[in-house]
Amino acid sequence: MAQADSKVLVLGALAGVAGISLAVVCYQGFRSRRRVSCPGVYLNRSNGQGTGLMLVDGPDLPRGQVEVLERLEALIQCVSELKDEMKSLKNALPTLPDHVREELRGQEEGRRVSPLHRTTPTRRKRAAGSLAGPRAGGRSSEEAESEGGYITALTDSEEEEQSDVEQRDEEQPADKLSDLLERIDRLHQGSESDKRESLNVLLEQREEFGQNSTFLWRLTRAYCDVHDISSTLEEKKTHAATGKKVGEEAVSLNPTCAESHQWYAIMCGIMAEYETVQNKIKNGYIFKDHLDKAIELKPQDPMSYYLLGRWCYAVAQLSWIERKVAATLFGEPPSATVEDALKNFLKVEEIQPGYSKLNYVFLAKCYKDLGQSQKARRMCESACSMNVVSKEDEEARKELDILCPALGM
User: Fold this and answer.
1) pTM for the full predicted model
2) How far is CA 57 from CA 41, 74, 189, in A?
3) Among 282, 288, 280, 277, which residue's Cα sits nearest to residue 313?
4) Cα 296–301–307 angle (5° rounding)?
């Protein structure tokens, strides 16, 4: 369609040139006749490319006619140049589409090299509209689309490719973090070597993801895991202290993350084992505050209720001297009863029946302390029916070895 229009344009131009040439021929005939009667004026062609006008003094030629002849000579020269240009255009017309395609390919390569040529889809539509608009004037929309469609198609392809690359760049860090966290969660459920590997992997990635709370609370959890499987006291203290600092950082970074509060509370409880009496009681208060916050943020997490039950049971077992020290140091001693502990352990069983072997053990302890031996024995039976898988299960088995005989089992 575009080639046909171009041919019509060229033919029209050629027809115009033919008309002008006819006028020139007529003029030249007139000039020949004038040259006979006006010997003082003649035209001189000094070479094949140009036309010159020489005036020889002649008494019979008026000044006005000389100016007319000069203008006609200039017109003849312009027509001659136009004829040459039209011949060149006619010869170049068959190869014009190929030349246009080569130019467009060169522009496309330039855009791909330089990021400055990136445009949004909205700007791309505006550019396509402004390009097709002038070309479509006076023609159908189909003609406009066929003429401008090639350029638009190239632009769309380029923009889609660049958009996909930018989207992958934005999603890559999130996908990488998600894959990392899934791997860490699997290692957390694994063997002792898996837990150590989990800590090492997290430490390697801390520089990149250290400002993410979901990363930091898992790092706190990893320190807790390695603390539990460490063999020396010094190693346990180091992991506990470092894990507590990381947990505090996680809470400060995102105070609305329940897991950050939960694992920070756990590390505070672990550090209490290595602190003085004053710091031990202080960590106990911190432990309780952050567990309450974790439950507020995530009320259906059984682990938080289990930990709070353990805290309540430990406080309920404090001696009079320990309570007196707490009151002296902090003004008011921590307060909790066996009933409070039982309530939290039952909440764990409500949310997730069979949550853990130790939860059944502490339910049995609470019922025993409250004089409900039959219920205590049922809890011991439930605990004994569960397999020993983790160190916590091993701790529960040792507790059962003491508790069952005390209940006559």
Assistant:
1) 0.57
2) 7, 21, 116
3) 288
4) 85
